[in-house]
Design goal:
With 247 residues, the protein is of the alpha/beta class. It contains nine helices and seven strands, in the order H-H-E-H-E-H-E-E-H-E-H-H-H-H-E-E. Strands 3-2-1-4-5-7-6 form a seven-stranded mixed sheet, with helices on both faces. Strand 4, helix 5 (124-137) and strand 5 form a beta-alpha-beta unit.
C-alpha cells in the first residue's frame, strides 16, 4: 500500500474480518445520534483508531463535528493522513487509563460519545472510572453509545454455533487474502509510511493484555450508577451489543 487512504480501507477490511456486521452496528449508532442530536451533532469519537466512526458520521451527517481520541500512534497516523485537511475532525492523543485523560480534549459538553470494539481492553476499575468521566462530558439528553463484545452467559449453544459459523467465514475470507490482526500489523510494519509509528506502538502497548469482558446488562447497570438517566441495548448479535445510555 502506498497511501493513507489505502491503509484506512485496509484497516476497515481487517476489522470486518472479525465483525461481519460492523456496518450494521455503525448504522444503528448513527440513527440514534441523528434522532437525539439532529443533523449537526458534536461528537466525541472515543478510542477512535483510524477514524472509522467519524468517517461514517460525516458521510451520514455532513454538518457534524468530531473529536477523535486515541493512544495508538500508528492508527492515529493513518487517521491524520486520511483526514488531512478535514476541518470537522480534531484528533487528540490521550490514554483512557489516565484519570486526567479528558483534560486533553476540547471543552465539552458533547451531544454524543461513540465507541466501538475498544473498551473491552480496559480493566474493570478503569472502565468504571471512565463511565463516570463520560457522564460529565455528555450534555443532558445526550448519548453514550458503545458497540463491543458482551458475551451472554446463558446461551452456550448459540454461542458455540455462531463461533463455528464465523470461523468458517473467516477461513473463506483468509483464503481470499483478507488479513487478520497479526497479518495486518506485520504488513504495516514493513511500509515506510507506518514503520516508525508501528515501532512506537510496540513501546506504548508493551504491557497490553486482554481484560475481563462483561454482559450487556452489567454495562447498562454501571452506566446508570455513573450518572446516566437510562441505559439499554439498542442492537445486538450473539456475541456483541450496542449499549446506549442517555445522560
Amino acid at each position: 500500500m502506498n497511501d493513507w487512504n489505502a491503509w484506512q480501507r485496509s484497516w476497515d477490511r481487517q476489522q470486518e474480518w472479525y465483525l461481519a456486521d460492523r456496518e450494521e452496528r455503525f448504522r444503528v449508532m448513527l440513527d440514534l445520534v441523528e434522532a437525539v442530536a439532529g443533523p449537526a451533532p458534536r461528537v466525541l469519537d472515543l478510542a477512535c483508531g483510524t477514524g472509522s466512526i467519524s468517517e461514517r458520521l460525516f458521510a451520514r451527517l455532513p454538518g457534524a463535528v468530531s473529536v477523535g481520541v486515541d493512544l495508538d500512534p500508528a492508527l492515529l497516523a493513518i487517521a491524520r493522513g486520511h483526514f488531512a485537511g478535514e476541518q470537522r475532525l480534531t484528533l487528540v492523543t490521550a490514554d483512557l487509563r489516565d484519570p486526567q485523560w479528558a483534560a486533553a480534549l476540547p471543552e465539552g459538553p458533547y451531544d454524543a460519545v461513540l465507541t466501538a470494539t475498544a473498551l473491552h481492553w480496559l480493566g474493570t476499575d478503569d472502565l468504571l472510572r471512565l463511565y463516570g468521566d463520560l457522564a460529565g462530558l455528555v450534555r443532558p439528553g445526550g448519548l453514550f453509545l458503545n458497540a463491543d463484545h458482551t458475551p451472554e452467559p446463558g446461551i452456550p449453544l448459540l454461542r458455540a454455533a455462531d463461533d463455528e459459523f464465523q470461523q468458517r467465514r473467516r477461513e473463506r475470507e483468509s483464503a481470499e487474502g483478507v488479513l487478520d490482526w497479526q497479518g495486518w500489523w506485520a504488513a504495516a510494519a514493513t511500509d515506510p509510511l507506518l514503520a516508525e509509528p508501528v515501532a512506537a506502538r510496540s513501546a506504548v502497548y508493551r504491557d497490553h493484555k486482554d481484560c475481563e469482558v462483561h454482559p450487556a446488562d452489567w454495562h447498562t447497570a454501571r452506566l446508570v450508577e455513573a450518572g446516566f438517566r437510562e441505559a439499554g441495548v439498542a442492537w445486538r448479535s450473539v456475541s456483541d451489543s450496542l449499549v446506549a445510555a442517555v445522560r
